[in-house]
């Protein structure tokens, strides 16, 4: 039962950490650390729930997990009451197994339609966009609405409209393009995928992570262009990005503009290292149990 209690403690810690992290003010000062903590919670919470159920369900059985599953399958196939484990332990094993199977399945079902939309969007962009020395490396979309966005994926595209090119100056164009390239190179769409598939479990965490990823891209853009240039560009680029794309002005624009115009000191390095250590500790709990369970299967 020690494994059950250990995993349940991890679940409780995650449930306590979620509202605390959601209400905290420091993530805007160090968004990368906050995103990593959210990812640690997103990994630890469902796996710890599944692990505690499996640990409880298999606790009465001292033999190999393969032998246990074979015996349970035989009991179920014979349509007789389960003799290997009682009903509660059987439900726990089935419930934990269902969670483990559902996690990648939910991610896959979320990713497939988005990948299809993005692929079609990239194919269409190849037909209707052009290039311009004013926006090197970007696809120029002939449209009067000022919009800049990234279509992520293996063949990512950074798109800027002619309306945006007319409305923004050189520094602003450079800043927003650097922002969108940060989304592409940082694979931010994969981070958002993790939270999209767990949105019911983690509530509004996905929206906060989206805003934090925008801040991470803002910080990257601020290293190649003035912060004021990006801030003023954000105010002018309020058009929503197409489905499956990451737009520069979609999340927490007012908060980000304030952050760019009046930057605060980042969280001290020691505090960030402590946050990363906390995330690693959280992830280590279900991972260590998974390693133990794998050895029990062999």
TrEMBL record:
One of its GO terms (molecular function) is metalloendopeptidase activity. One of its GO terms (biological process) is proteolysis. PANTHER family: POSSIBLE SENSOR-TRANSDUCER PROTEIN BLAR, SLR0241 PROTEIN. Binds 1 zinc ion per subunit. Belongs to the peptidase M48 family. CDD domains: M56_BlaR1_MecR1_like. Residues 118-219 form the Peptidase M48 domain. InterPro entries: Beta-lactam_resp_regulator (IPR052173), Peptidase_M48 (IPR001915). Its cofactor is Zn(2+). The chain crosses the membrane at residues 34-56, 91-112, 273-292. Pfam families: Peptidase_M48 (PF01435). Keywords: Hydrolase, Membrane, Metal-binding, Metalloprotease, Protease, Transmembrane, Transmembrane helix, Zinc. This is Zn-dependent protease with chaperone function.
């Amino acid at each position: 039962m020690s494994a059950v209690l250990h995993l349940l403690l991890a679940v409780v810690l995650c449930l306590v950490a979620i509202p605390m992290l959601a209400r905290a003010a420091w993530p805007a000062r160090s968004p990368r650390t906050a995103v990593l903590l959210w990812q640690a919670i997103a990994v630890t919470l469902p796996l710890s729930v599944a692990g505690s159920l499996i640990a409880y369900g298999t606790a009465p059985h001292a033999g190999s997990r393969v032998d246990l599953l074979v015996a349970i399958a035989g009991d179920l196939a014979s349509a007789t009451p389960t003799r290997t484990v009682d009903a509660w332990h059987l439900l726990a094993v089935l419930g934990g197994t269902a969670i483990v199977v559902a996690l990648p399945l939910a991610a896959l079902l979320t990713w497939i339609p988005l990948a299809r939309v993005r692929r079609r969007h990239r194919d269409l962009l190849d037909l209707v966009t052009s290039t311009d020395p004013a926006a090197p490396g970007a696809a120029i979309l002939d449209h009067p609405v000022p919009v800049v966005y990234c279509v992520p994926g293996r063949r990512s595209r950074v798109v800027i409209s002619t309306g945006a090119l007319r409305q923004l100056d050189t520094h602003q164009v450079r800043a927003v393009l650097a922002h969108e390239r940060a989304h592409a190179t940082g694979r931010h769409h994969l981070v958002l995928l993790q939270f999209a598939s767990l949105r019911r479990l983690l509530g509004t965490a996905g929206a906060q992570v989206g805003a934090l990823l925008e801040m991470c891209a803002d910080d990257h853009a601020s290293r190649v262009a003035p912060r004021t240039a990006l801030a003023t560009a954000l105010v002018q680029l309020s058009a929503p990005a197409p489905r499956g794309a990451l737009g520069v002005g979609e999340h927490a624009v007012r908060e980000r503009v304030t952050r760019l115009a009046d930057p605060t000191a980042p969280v001290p390095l020691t505090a960030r290292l402590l946050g990363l250590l906390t995330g690693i500790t959280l992830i280590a709990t279900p991972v260590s149990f998974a390693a133990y369970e794998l050895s029990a299967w062999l």
